[in-house]
């Protein structure tokens, strides 16, 4: 990947997590405020801003100032962690602007990607599952790796040096993305180029000296890619007709782009949406097309179209009561779960006549072996007296290759199905309207 202003070719990217890929820093800020109110602590609300990207020593100084005992401090921290975990499950954890478009673009370019975070392993995993981006990354490092490797946390360079070694690329071909001064300093200390995308705090003079470049969001960074283009949901490059303008393929994409644009502009209610549509004189899909490809539409909006449109489709075919091929099943399931931003695990229960007698969503949000428990899968199989099952789960990232967890879960389900004399027909992985049949690909 060639980036304007950077001479070296970029072959791998290392990301921070909190405040960069997801809006967790704001959630932690809000959780600190709520926990303080619950505990009746007299802490100014703006004090929590100092914790954003703080070093270990800065965190210790903050807690020492406001808490009399270690037990009181630990109860407070536990409560803030509980709130953020709860809000993540409720869908309040969101990707930061442009993250999805950037990940899709970097993946299309074949770049290696990894996360180097100082947060706890379970929190990092929770965030990746909840936002549906875990399959973009070759690996991740967390505070667990800091403990195991006896390495120093940011702003020490250790975690980025460890990530650079594991990703197995020369440092000159790596690029770090960070949101905090502490993270930027860590990348600088590791002698790796770093792009700062600030979150809650504006960049300081020191940040400007340390960072290779500073962008307001990932959309702005994407503009700096040489020969930049946008891809449709089949992975085909779209036609570039004017500088900074791209034509998209379907009416659905155009409509979804309009909704996204209006939402960014603050039009979030139906009356506001109606007023805006009338103001723009968008009476047909042709009008929408003309507006998006016209002079009022810039590159950021074109990129935002793909970020949203890759995940949504406006129509869904009716389900057949009998499927005669894996292709029919795969296409049905791919359309069923397109646009779902969290991972979901589904089971189709099938009788002796090859009829689907029921569909059940077993898990959502944090798919792993502890939450997708075989007893939940086969409890319904017994209740429906079914002869066979097909299982499926989606990867919102669109990446269809199964993880080691996916393969292990499949192996467990096959073994139990054999004991119960139930046919395990297939495990489908779904993403962005496409599917992978693990049976057809001889993955079991």
Characterise the protein shown here.
This protein is of the alpha/beta class and 444 residues long. Helix content is 42%, strand content 14%. The chain is built from 17 helices and 13 strands. The strands form three sheets. Strands 3-2-1-4-5-6 form a six-stranded parallel β-sheet. A five-stranded mixed β-sheet has the order 10-9-11-12-13. It has a two-stranded antiparallel sheet with strand order 7-8. Helix 17 (404-419) links the parallel strand 11 and strand 12. Helix 1 (24-38) packs across helix 3 and helix 11 (251-264) packs across helix 14 (299-309). The chain is globular and about 70 Å long. The two termini are 36 Å apart. Residues 227-251, 301-320 and 366-370 have low confidence and may be disordered.
């Amino acid at each position: 990947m060639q980036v304007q202003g950077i001479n070296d070719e970029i072959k791998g990217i290392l990301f921070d997590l909190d405040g960069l890929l997801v809006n967790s820093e704001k959630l932690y800020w809000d959780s600190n405020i709520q926990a303080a109110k619950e505990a009746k602590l007299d802490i100014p609300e703006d004090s929590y801003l100092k914790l954003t990207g703080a070093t270990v020593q800065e965190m210790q100084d903050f807690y020492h100032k406001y808490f009399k005992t270690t037990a009181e401090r630990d109860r407070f921290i536990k409560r803030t962690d509980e709130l953020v975990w709860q809000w993540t499950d409720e869908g309040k954890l969101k990707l930061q602007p442009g993250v999805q478009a950037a990940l899709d673009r970097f993946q299309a370019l074949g770049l290696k990607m990894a996360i180097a975070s100082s947060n706890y392993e379970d929190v990092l995993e929770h965030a990746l599952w909840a936002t549906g981006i875990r399959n973009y990354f070759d690996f991740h490092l967390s505070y667990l790796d800091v403990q195991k490797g006896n390495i120093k946390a940011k702003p020490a360079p250790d975690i980025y040096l460890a990530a650079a070694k594991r990703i197995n690329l020369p440092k000159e071909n790596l690029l770090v993305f960070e949101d905090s001064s502490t993270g930027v300093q860590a990348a600088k200390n590791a002698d790796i180029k770093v792009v700062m995308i600030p979150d809650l705090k504006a960049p300081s003079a020191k940040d400007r000296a340390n960072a290779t470049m500073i962008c307001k969001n990932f959309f702005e960074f994407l503009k700096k890619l040489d020969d930049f283009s946008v891809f449709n949901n089949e992975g085909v490059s779209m036609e570039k007709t004017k500088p900074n303008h791209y034509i998209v393929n379907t009416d659905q994409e155009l409509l979804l782009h309009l909704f996204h644009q209006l939402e960014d502009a603050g039009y979030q209610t139906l009356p506001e949406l109606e007023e805006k549509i009338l103001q723009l004189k968008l009476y047909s899909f042709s009008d929408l097309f003309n507006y998006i490809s016209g002079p009022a539409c810039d590159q950021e909006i074109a990129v935002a179209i793909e970020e949203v449109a890759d995940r949504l489709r406006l129509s869904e075919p009716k389900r057949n009561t009998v499927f005669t091929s894996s292709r029919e099943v795969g296409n049905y399931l791919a359309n069923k779960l397109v646009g779902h931003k969290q991972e979901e695990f589904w089971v189709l229960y099938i009788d002796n006549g090859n009829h689907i007698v029921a569909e059940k969503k077993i898990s959502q949000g944090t798919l792993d072996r502890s939450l997708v428990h075989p007893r939940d899968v086969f409890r319904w199989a017994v209740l429906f007296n079914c002869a066979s099952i097909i299982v499926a789960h989606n990867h919102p990232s669109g990446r269809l290759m199964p993880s080691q967890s996916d393969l292990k879960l499949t192996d467990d389900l096959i073994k139990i199905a054999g004991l119960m004399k139930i046919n395990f027909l297939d495990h489908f992985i779904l993403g962005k309207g496409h599917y992978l049949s693990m049976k057809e690909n001889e993955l079991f």
